[in-house]
Amino acid sequence: MSKRPPRRRWHSGRTLWLGLTCWFLAVGEALPAQDATPYQALTLPALDREYLITGLTLPTMARGPLQLTPRVPQGQLELISHQIQLRPRTDRTFDLILEVTLSGQGTLDAELALLAAATSLRDDVTLPPQTLRLPAQIRLEWRDDGLAVTVLELPSAIELRVESALGQRLVGSCRTLAVLGSPACDGLANSLDHLRVPLDATGSTYLIPRAWIDERAGELLHALVR
């Protein structure tokens, strides 16, 4: 059995593969089949590994005057498997469909605020195994040190299914803090079952190192990107 590549640390917003991790954590509909040109499928086995994510702040959720801000100070994301599908367009641009199976775990912080009053909660969170599909448009260009990927179009956000006891703990704290009764508190707690993560990588360029591209994928990519 082959050894798993060593785990590496990736800092939020600072390196290639946290940007690409946003692609991994995405859902969406398949691109419409208006072009008869077939997709070409490939994988990059070096991507199937465990990633460390730090300092991820998610959008604030609101129910009336109640506001909930979730954060993931630290977590681990395991990319179990993936498939990349590319369809050429023009001028080195491509339609992309990325399908991934992933799981993970980490720590979830939640700050609940009502006007000037606030309370904070923390709990472990699990990302159960799930298969997700992302459509996008990208531009590819070979460089001396690898393949440059520029994101042209991407969904505005992704939604992740998570499991945590924080939602039930939140209801008790919410009812103590609020005077709105259970509907608003229950609504916020239910929101923690699915976390919405914004994607802001459009216009960014990332690099796939040559060492991450195996022989089979390299032959296909060289044929597609000239």
As an assembly, this protein is: single chain
Look up the CATH topology: Bactericidal permeability-increasing protein, domain 1
The CATH architecture name reads Super Roll
User: How would you spell out the order of helices and strands?
Assistant: EHEEEEEEEEHHEEH
What's the total helix number?
4
The best one-word shape is elongated
Which blocks of ≥5 consecutive residues have pLDDT under 50? 8-33
Distance between the termini: 36 Å
Radius of gyration: 20 Å
Give the tally of structural domains: 1
- Return the CATH class: Alpha Beta
In percent, how helical is the residue content?
A: 10-25%
* Class inferred from helices and paired strands: alpha+beta
Mean pLDDT: 80
Strand count, sense and barrel status of the largest sheet are: 9 strands, mixed
Describe the structure.
The chain has 226 residues and is α+β, with helices and mostly antiparallel strands. It has a single domain (8-224), classed as Bactericidal permeability-increasing protein, domain 1 (Super Roll), CATH 3.15.10. It is 18% helix and 49% strand. The chain has 4 helices and 11 strands, in the order E-H-E-E-E-E-E-E-E-E-H-H-E-E-H. The strands form 2 sheets. Strands 1, 2, 3, 4, 5, 6, 7, 8 and 11 form a 9-stranded mixed β-sheet that branches. A two-stranded antiparallel sheet has the order 9-10. A hairpin with a 2-residue loop joins strand 7 and strand 8. The radius of gyration is 20 Å and the shape is elongated.
Please give a quick description of this structure.
By secondary structure, the chain is α+β, with helices and mostly antiparallel strands. It is 18% helix and 49% strand.
